[in-house]
Each structure stands twice: as C-alpha cells, then as structure tokens.
Amino acid sequence: MRKKIPLAKLLLRAVLSASNTYKATYVAALLGTLVQAAFSVWTAWTLVAIYVRFSGSGGTGGSRGNGATTGLVVLTIFNWYWTSELIKAITFTTTAGTYGVWYYSNDSKKVPHATLSSFKRASTWSLGSLAFGSLVLAILDIIRALINILSQQAAQDGDMIGVVVGCIASCLIATIDWLIEFFNRLAYVNIALYGNGYIGAAKETWRLVKQKGVDALIQDSLVNTVFGIGSFVIAILCGITVYAYLTVVNPTYVRNDSNYFSVVILYA
C-alpha cells in the first residue's frame, strides 16, 4: 500500500493541474451538486404531496389508498435513485472528458470550450449508456433500502433471524453496489474518452480490471481517502462558521424558534 502513495500523489497533482487549466470543471461539479440538491428537494415535496393526497384528510382512505401511497412512494424513491445516479454520471463523465482533453492535448495549448463539449457528449450521445449504468446502481439502491426496511420491521417484531438475514443481505448488496460503482466509474471514463456504448465500455473495463484490478482498487482507495478527508474538513469548517454566525448575530428566526439552530448547522 505504501508503495502506491507516490503514484496517488502524482495523480492528485495531475487532477489539480487539469482542473486549474480547465476551471470550468469546478463549475460543472458545482452545477451537478446544485441540480442534485434541487432534485432531492423536489422529490421530498413530491413525497409529502403523495402522503397528503392519499393518506391525509383528503385521501381516498382504505386499502386502495394505502396501496396507491405505497406504490407511488416506491416509484418516486426509485426515480430519485435513478435520476440522482444519472446526474452524478453526467457530471463525472463531463469532468472525465475534460481531463482526457487535458491529457491528450499539448499542455501549453488550452482547448477552448472543452468542458462544454464534454457535457454535450455526455448529455446527448452518451446519455443512454449513462442511464443504463445508473439504472443498475438504482436497482441495487432500492433493493438495499427495501432490505433495510424489512430488517427494521423484523427488529420491531423481535425476529432475530430476520434481522441477521437482513443484515447479511444488506452487507452483500452494499458490497456489490460498491464494486459496480467502481466498475461504472472506469466504464464512464471509457465512454467519456472514446464515446463507446456502455456494453463496449464495460467489456474494455473488464479487460482492464483483469490486468490491473488490484492496482486500480488501491489507487482508487487512496485518492478517495484524500478527497474524503478534504470533504470532512470542509464540512467541519462550514459548521463552525455557521455556528459562530448564529451565536454572534443571533438572527430573528433562531430567537423565535431554537430548533432552527441545529437544523441550519446540520444543513451547513
């Protein structure tokens, strides 16, 4: 593991160099995050509307209303999983395509509108491939969510066997999900660089994994650890900043309702 650190360091430097050359990658990442956050808020409002319509005072009531509520909730959550994965895939592929332009072009010559061109390819020609890869992850996510719900119900009923089986199944699905997510990232890079379909990219990715699978896993783990630590530090700094602001300024909405204090810090 320690022998791989210099290469991981080189990869991080290359990523920073490419990002500084094509600063639009930062914009793409920010826009992807904002779009996903907006879609999550919209999904939350949709779930509330479903409960109000079918389970509230204006609902149809009875088993028919409960069945409609359950079906719509499952469909909405599945749509959230799939669309969220697709948004991440488009953002990732856009960035990967830009890095590919940086790598294969002359360092001293910047290609104009590289990120925009990469986004156009990801959101048009490669959209079907990205949607297919996202669908696989969405199916695994919804299966894991259903297993967790069943495990919680088994725990409430005191069914220890059901809890153990659910825990094992959840761990198995989580492992498969992690492996497919890792595999998809490599396939998305292939799609971004060469414009292959998902099946063709998957075949080439599988060939690469068989040759350099362990090395790729180690490098991915090292680089993601650095990004994870950076994200954690930024989250802590944001929380401290917001806490200091709320403590010093003490805005009206916090004075009127102290519950907003923890909510605002958590959101930050």
Automatic annotation (TrEMBL):
GO terms for molecular function: transmembrane transporter activity. One of its GO terms (cellular component) is plasma membrane. Keywords: Membrane, Transmembrane, Transmembrane helix. It is found in: Cell membrane; Membrane. Probably involved in transport through the plasma membrane. Belongs to the CTL (choline transporter-like) family. This is Protein PNS1.
